[in-house]
Amino acid sequence: MIKKILGKLSVVVCLSLYISHAYAGPGYIHVSDMSQVHYQLVGDGNVYFRNLNTFNNTATGCCYAFILDTTTPYGKSAWSVILMKMATKAPLSLYVSDYNPPTSGNPATIDHLGNW
Asked: What does UniProt give as the signal peptide span (predicted)?
């Protein structure tokens, strides 16, 4: 009886670890070459990043999942750093508010970035 309970408990623990990894929340996406990042700049000053899952397979892929607001002081600075890193094909680490946001409607924000 104890073996059955332990067996079921181990299955629950494994599933919990898998699910928590799939819905990891905030964290870093390390991009090895920023020139490979696809983005879309829209008229309201937001930049949407489209293929961050290429660099971290736990991140949502495509479209409107990750956003940077370039109308704020931070957003202007971050966007200039991103463009410089794209032009030089350099690496950059992006901290996102959620690895797995929906692909539209409620994008994750890029809260800080850098190399260290």
From this structure: 1-24
Q: Containing H/E element for 58? A: none
Q: Cα(34)–Cα(27) distance, rounded to whole angstroms?
A: 18
Residue 1: pLDDT band (50, 70, 90) is low
Contact 45, 84 (CB under 8 A): no
- pLDDT at res. 5: 63
Q: What is the DSSP string of 61-99?
A: PSTTSEEEETTSHHHHHHHHHHHHHHHTT--EEEEES-S
For residue 15, give both structure tokens.
């599933």
**Contact (Cβ atoms closer than 8 angstroms) between residue 99 and residue 59:** yes
Mean pLDDT, range 107-112, rounded to an integer: 94
